[in-house]
């Protein structure tokens, strides 16, 4: 029944609401099913409903992925401090989850706790140096902290790994109070690429 409900949700069929009510009555403690429904609702940008599903699944059987789902729904709702707590919980449930560490750092960045965000991105990159998004985010955090040279090193790592990040990086460099404006973008690209 959960699989059928997923199909209905993905098609935005009105019958999904009735089926969700039936599932709640018949299978209130089926954590994997509620987690799957929560993921589908997140993809559909229905954060309130997704949060309810993740909370139900977490209540039955806590896991790193369920805590990350809760955090993602809370972040989508603008409840960033609560999202940070959920991502912290996810990291405690699976200390080896790079994704949980990344999301915790991202929520710290959202809350302008730049030191915690920097430390989180550095932990992620220690185990996953190929994660371009962490390099870019680390650059923006370092730049916000006033470390432009460190930011350029992080940006350079991102650009060297994936050239299509250059546009985002060049824009980020001008957005912070401590930044740089390069009129010759090809020179900037070469400078970052090292």
UniProtKB/TrEMBL annotation:
It holds the Pfam family TPR_16. Keywords: Repeat, TPR repeat. PROSITE patterns: TPR. It comes from the Bacteria. Coiled coil: none annotated. Transmembrane segments: none annotated. TPR repeats lie at residues 31-64. The keyword Repeat applies. This is Tetratricopeptide repeat protein. The lineage of its organism: Bacteria, Pseudomonadati, Pseudomonadota, Alphaproteobacteria, Hyphomicrobiales.
């Amino acid at each position: 029944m959960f699989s059928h409900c997923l199909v209905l949700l993905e098609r935005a069929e009105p019958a999904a609401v009735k089926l969700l009510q039936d599932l709640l009555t018949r299978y209130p403690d089926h954590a994997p099913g509620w987690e799957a429904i929560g993921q589908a609702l997140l993809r559909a940008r229905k954060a309130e409903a997704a949060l309810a599903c993740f909370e139900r699944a977490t209540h039955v059987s806590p896991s790193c992925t369920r805590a990350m789902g809760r955090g993602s729904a809370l972040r989508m709702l603008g409840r960033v401090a609560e999202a940070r707590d959920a991502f912290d919980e996810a990291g405690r449930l699976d200390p080896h989850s790079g994704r949980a560490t990344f999301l915790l750092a991202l929520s710290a960045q959202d809350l302008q706790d730049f030191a915690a965000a920097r430390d989180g991105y550095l932990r992620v990159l220690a185990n996953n140096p190929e994660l371009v998004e962490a390099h870019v985010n680390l650059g923006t955090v370092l730049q916000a902290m006033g470390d432009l040279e460190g930011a350029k090193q992080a940006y350079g790592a991102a650009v060297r790994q994936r050239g299509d990040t250059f546009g985002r990086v060049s824009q980020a460099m001008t957005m912070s109070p401590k930044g740089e404006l390069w009129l010759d973008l090809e020179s900037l690209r070469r400078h970052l690429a090292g």
